[in-house]
Amino acid sequence: MSRETLQGTLDLLILKTLARGSAHGYGMTCAILNATQNQLRVEEGSLYPALRRLESAALIKAQWKASENNRRARYYELTRAGRKRLQQLEDEWRNRTAVIEGFLAYE
Predict the structure, then answer these.
(1) Beta strands 23-24 and 60-66: pairing type?
(2) pLDDT exceeding 70 applies to what percent of the chain?
(3) Secondary-structure percent of the chain, ordered helix, strand, coil, rounded to 5
């Protein structure tokens, strides 16, 4: 997979997680892991650079809040541009997987 495809897949996972509500980094990691039945683990070394990149692109915004255990955490949420980008990424992903499914079904 190309770097751009991997990056786009991580963006999709992050944006889709935030479409369900604001979250801090660790919460996103847990949500992705739970939603994928422990199949996809997003490591800190990938997550936080992606969050900074998405924030720089104005696809997400962040603010400091108290977490569930009363610690200070940075919570992220989607922007309007982020919702639009999420829809684009979902459409691209569905198109790619449909092509692969078609190929697998071809006899």
Answers:
(1) unpaired
(2) 93
(3) 65, 15, 20
